[in-house]
User: What shape does this take?
Amino acid sequence: MRNAFADEITQIAKSDPSVVLLSGDIGNRLFDKYKESNPERFVNCGVAEANMVTMGSGLAMSGMKPVAYTIASFLIYRAFEQIRVDLSYHDAAVLLVGVGGGLSYASNGSTHHTLEDIALMRSLPNMQVICAGDPLEVRAATKAFFNDPKPTYLRIGKKGEAPVHEKALDDFEVGKSICLKRGQSVALLATGNMLPNCSSVTNELEERGISSSLYSFHTVKPLDKECLEEIFAGHQYVITVEEHGRLGGFGSAVAEWLASQKQPGARLLTLGTPDQFLLYTGNQEEARKKCGLDKVGLLEQITDFIGPV
Amino acid sequence: MNSRATTENIDIPEGEFGSLVAIAARIRGRIIQLSHQARTPHLGSSLSFVELLVYLYWDFLKIYPEIVKDPSRDRFVLSKGHGITTLYAVLAERGFFSPELFQNYAQVDSPLPEHPSPRCVPGIEAATGSLGHGLSIATGIALASKMNAIDYNVVCLLSDGECNEGSTWEAALLAPAHNLDNLIAIIDFNKWQATGRSAEITALEPLKEKFEAFGWNSIRIDGHEFRQIKSALATAKKSDKPFAIIADTVKGQGIKMMEDDNNWHYRIPSKEEVDSAFEELGIKSL
Assistant: This one.
């Protein structure tokens, strides 16, 4: 995903001189091409996330379109008050790109895990929260920001994720989920880097004779309520899946919406990481296994929820 | 005088600061009146940088109501947002908004909150009040000037207490690395923060040398002396690096009973105290 972002921002900056890329001392070599074509519009802000975010606000106030890029956990947690005051409160259009969202850096330990960021960021007025599910969503979300700049958090994975979508998302809209597969009984709503696992899970459910839908809810805020209405009316079971704690994230957003509905329709299960720090996690796949977010774990929890077919 | 006399800067000859002294007295009167009327704190903090702000707005900064949105205007960022009544008073006096707005200051539906909200009145560049943000905002604005090749100065005024904040020093480290010679930081060094002496709470001194060690040019002045303020800003403008003015000031300056008394960080003046302050300032009404 990060290569897709680097390539996309390099392309966009070629035709938009207001683009400024701020980096928190990461992405060595990743932005070489961007720097070649745009050396004056790249600022390595060093290991100083608070200053980077607020500087971004100052740049946005002065007609620029800044992007602040660093590891998601440091970007959101260290600089949260700066994000709240200088971006959200000022409605300053800065694109925050958090790389390594969720358990991407599982083996680095809980300092590097980002399992509370969606909860924090969606609580901020004026803030859009987008969790990209594959490299094509990264590209489309990046383009969308520059077409209509607003304070935005884009949570991406790391490198090497395979595309899930078959082709470029030319119709991508912030706040409009994407239906990848339409079934009848179970609807899987994936956000961010759980999209590939959810795709395998829906295929497996189909093989077991359970008709399933798959949606990519790349945007957690604003929530695609129109689509949720259709989903809850058209299925028996709805399952949200995110590489994020169960408290306050995408599943919570759907549950909050559901609580206000007169005719809820389908039953809801929200899957995510437990309410605890993850110790001895291993790599991302191993950490997912521990949290039940691998294919086997997801299938177990889903079949347990829907009961015998 | 031409028709824009109210908004054009005064070309002040050396040694003739009498008009500014009178303006500073009026500004102080306004600040004290607002604190009394709305029962808002931070009076001492607001009184310590009156001369600095009067000089900036009457002589140094190219910011007038007519060009308040012009991309080439100079920018002023009040990082110590709790001193906002001083900036409100200056902006009103310079014609950015009507002084009638003061009637409702800090009350329901007022465009003048106790800490400024974004774009609340013309002339407010940033919504400050949370400390340690202003220098980073100013650094971003100064950087945009270089990137866009639009020439303007960015002046940021900070409190000494704000120099406790790590983010202030993050910005101070970055600005010289990008040769932001259009960035001027003024530290309103009134020696007090909310609950104690600022140089005792943290090892703030030697402050000028700290900025120099961070790659800035710096000067230390008496922040109530117009001649020194003028000279420091002229030097700052010629600097090839970001420039820090360490302005030695007195909290509560101008009103004897408030001077260097930190109770006036939070204390609200009574009607009698306002009257006595007006008398001391030599003003009858606003």
Chain A has a mean pLDDT of 97. The two ends of chain A are 37 Å apart (CA to CA). The longest strand of chain A covers residues 237-245.
